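User: Run a structure prediction on this.
Assistant: Running it now.
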Amino acid sequence: MMQGLTPLETEALALSARVAGWSVLICLPAGIAVAWVLARRRFPGMWLLDGIVHLPLVLPPVVVGYVLLVLLGRSGLIGGWLYATFGVTLAFSWQGAAVAAAVMAFPLMVRAVRLSLETMDRGLEDAARTLGAGELRVWMTVTLPLCLPGILTGTILTFARSLGEFGATITFVSNIPGETRTLPLALYSVTQVPGDPVPAIRLALISVAVALLALVVSELMARRMSARLGTGP
């Protein structure tokens, strides 16, 4: 039977939760905006934007991590400017891990919100406009509430995906104890040490349990939200 969490497990779990939480905060506003553009607008090059958004789903995570290192490293195109102007360094830091996790999870946020936007009854928005509501009020009082199940689903999926991010993270921010060693990186570290398999098994079980819990909570909250809005089965 598993005893209490070890210091390694506690540190990795806390760091993973912090990284995943910030990943959600990064993805949420941008994901809603991009999903709305893809769902409601038609313009030349839309296919290109759609492809770029979904690239992290098909690219090897190591490639994404390398691109982030080139762009956001201290001597990178954007990272060099951030360091020179604000003294901010993303590479090899937990903030960089949050950025890497956000990039990898971003397509999940966009897909969930976009699906919600595309399946909602747009007649309700039109009715609000005929009653004199402006676009902002229509968005805040009609569109956004009807999209909440999709936003909630995207949020939980982004959180769960960020908890399990490995390839882009280790490439961009390395595997630094106490700074960037999240649950997947901690599991990788213990598997590289021959001997007792119990630490690896424990970390794997913790990862599975946390991810499963996030998915179950997502499903329950989405159903409850859909029931309140009258859009559920």
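Residues 7-38+59-229 form a domain with the MetI-like fold fold (CATH 1.10.3720.10).
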